[in-house]
Specification:
- The chain is an alpha/beta fold.
- It folds into two domains: 138 residues, Amidase signature (AS) enzymes (Alpha-Beta Complex); 70 residues.
- Helix content is 44%, strand content 12%.
- The protein has ten helices and five strands, in the order αβααβαααβαααββα.
- It has a five-stranded mixed sheet.
- A hairpin with a 5-residue loop joins strand 4 and strand 5.
- It is globular.
- The model has no long low-confidence stretch (mean pLDDT 89).
């Protein structure tokens, strides 16, 4: 969305805060996202679960993320071993919630204008229409449990560090990207994103290197609720130390 962590802070500053048209927005004053951005990471506690980040993850990506964590440790951060909770079953719950909530968002045009939608999204909304109240309630309970499990992790650390995806970028067409086969054939694709979507935990993803094919690799930092200024700070510190924010892959 932006070129740097500082830019992310500027954008977030502009869009945060109370919106009278959105009852879910927070009334609290918006903190200055950039006030401490040059403060560094001295004393910051970064949670790391080696098994969590390496299981079913591309080895080159794992190595790059671990190197990035080592860089932050050299800048004064404290690496804290953690054991991530078992979040099995969240992908199914995500599909239930995502499809049914998408249906609710499109109720003014779906199914009345169904033919104007692409074939995959038609199917996705049809799936949402088949979700029962009991299934939605069960999936929402999974989301609440996920939030509680992750809150326990943040008792001991300030930040959780992990990849953003399980693999480097790969060729894909629109049909695959938005088709059900992508979700079914890639069961681990959302392992590092969906839990934090469920829990409402803010996160920032930034470049941490490139693999042997020259493709960009990404490190992700996840924080407690309302820790966005801290995430901008750690991202900025990493970028200033590594100069990886300026990396651009060759595009034919």
């Amino acid at each position: 969305m932006v070129r740097s962590s500082a830019d992310a802070g500027i954008m977030l500053q502009a869009i945060s805060g109370l919106d009278p048209n959105d009852p879910t927005s927070l009334p609290d004053p918006v903190p200055d996202m950039l006030r401490d951005i040059e403060k560094g990471v001295q004393g910051l506690r970064i949670g790391l679960d080696d098994k969590y980040i390496s299981e079913n993850t591309d080895p080159e990506l794992v190595a790059s993320v671990l190197a990035g964590i080592k860089t932050l440790e050299g800048l004064g951060a404290t690496i804290v071993p953690v054991t991530m909770p078992d979040l099995s079953g969240y992908m199914e719950a995500w599909g239930v919630l995502c499809s049914s909530e998408a249906l609710a968002a499109h109720e003014s045009t779906y199914p009345s204008q169904r033919d104007d939608y692409g074939p995959w999204f038609q199917g996705w909304l049809d799936n949402g229409a088949q979700v029962t109240g009991a299934e939605y309630a069960k999936a929402n309970n999974v989301r609440s449990a996920c939030r509680g499990l992750l809150n326990n992790i943040f008792h001991d650390v300030d930040i959780i560090c992990c990849p953003a995806m399980t693999s480097p970028p790969f060729p894909i067409d629109l049909e695959e990207m938005y088709g059900p086969s992508f979700l079914l054939d890639n069961p681990h694709w959302g392992r590092f994103t969906v839990p934090y979507d469920f829990s409402g935990s803010p996160s920032i993803s930034i470049p941490c290197g490139k693999n042997s094919e020259g493709l960009p690799l990404t490190i992700q930092f996840v924080g407690r609720h309302l820790s966005e200024p801290q995430l901008c700070r750690i991202g900025h510190t990493f970028e200033q130390t590594t100069n990886l924010a300026d990396f651009r892959p060759d595009i034919d």
